[in-house]
Amino acid sequence: MNINKDLIKNKLYQxxxxxxxxxxxxxxxxxxxxxxxxxSRKGEKGFIIIASDIAQRTKRHIFKVFNGDxxxxxxxxxxxxxxxxxxxxxxxxxxxxFGLKLKNLIKQFLQLEGGSGSCQ
Length: 120
What we know:
Blueprint: H1 5-26, E1 29-31, H2 33-42, E2 46-50, H3 56-65, E3 70-72, H4 76-82, E4 90-94, H5 97-113
Parallel strand pairs: 2-3
Antiparallel strand pairs: 1-4, 2-4
Helix pairs in contact: 1-5
């Protein structure tokens, strides 16, 4: 049985993109450093997605306020285009049923991509 890896990867990419868009419309996703800082202070549980082309200095600032699961994928322009913005550097996803489903899709996508998606 021959499975086309690229086809599966593209489907997972679309699924992740659609879930991010759905989460944004439903309020399950918050964008930007300021929102992340606010939610971290409140003790909100969740994970973040940061752009792969984000500056190291910005990344250090993010890790000063957030200590949790982190995935690094997509560019700032890609994340922005998903949500109708110009660029987005960081996305916070609440840890609930929606968040766990999105996290699972991201892990599957990264596994096929061959990268770790590590934020370090």
